[in-house]
Write a structure and sequence with these properties.
The complex is a heterodimer of chains A (about 110) and B (about 120). Chain A is mainly β and about 110 residues long. Helix content of chain A is about 0%, strand content about 55%.
């Protein structure tokens, strides 16, 4: 079992729709969770961090955390073609972050 | 805040050669990380420093890889006797230290793309 698992995709949604990205993790003691966006050929950039169970909203993005189920998700509302990228889930493990393999999102005009 | 800076951006080398990469973190950040990323995969943890101390190194990391952060500021990553399998994007990131078991976000540099021929 991988430490952080994501569906690799690609996930394709029409412009204006909600994109839902999911991530599960194996380390029950993890307390820090992050979503990064990575455009092709670029480095990861932070979208959201979440530390407590529940929802956290920032503009069109909502992160959801369920520690009991060891599950983190990211919702992107009103998806735009510029949201087309790979989305990386990262989980804190000790002093470092462990990343999933990423989910490729394609938003079709 | 000038961000995390990495040099060079690209490096092409022949198999068997040694290469060294440099990373300058965000100045007020005391943690510095090295990750490696290949196509279609997420970043893979290599090692990290808190100030000048190397606190963790991946068990999967070959002894051909070594990293230093001599004065707690910039860091170098050296790969000796490069192999074609070392071809990847090498990412540096920095962060602050938080307490209570929580991690602060990592801020990534633009990466160094290594091609071993």
């Amino acid at each position: 079992q991988k430490e952080v698992e994501q569906n690799s995709g690609p996930l394709s949604v029409p412009e204006g729709a909600i994109a839902s990205l999911n991530c599960t993790y194996s380390d029950r003691v993890s307390q820090s969770f992050f979503w990064y966006r990575q455009y092709s050929g670029k480095s990861p950039e932070l979208i959201m961090s979440i530390y407590s169970n529940g929802d956290k909203e920032d503009g069109r993005f909502t992160a959801q955390l369920n520690k009991a189920s060891q599950y983190v998700s990211l919702l992107i509302r009103d998806s735009q073609p510029s949201d087309s990228a790979t989305y990386l889930c990262a989980v804190g493990q000790g002093g470092k972050l462990i990343f999933g393999q990423g989910t490729e999102l394609s938003v079709k005009p | 805040d000038t961000g995390v800076s990495q040099d060079p951006r690209h490096k092409i080398t022949k198999r068997g050669q040694n290469v060294t990469f440099r990373c300058d973190p965000i100045s007020e950040h005391n943690r510095l990380y090295w990750y490696r990323q290949t196509l279609g995969q997420g970043p893979e943890f290599l090692t990290y420093f808190q100030n000048e101390a190397q606190l963790e190194k991946s068990r999967l990391l070959s002894d051909r890889f070594s990293a230093e952060r001599p004065k707690g500021s910039f860091s170098t990553l050296e790969i000796q006797r490069t192999e074609q399998g070392d071809s990847a994007m090498y990412l540096c990131a920095s962060s602050l230290v938080w307490g209570q078991g929580k991690n602060s976000p990592l801020h990534f540099g633009n990466g160094t793309r290594l091609t071993v021929t």
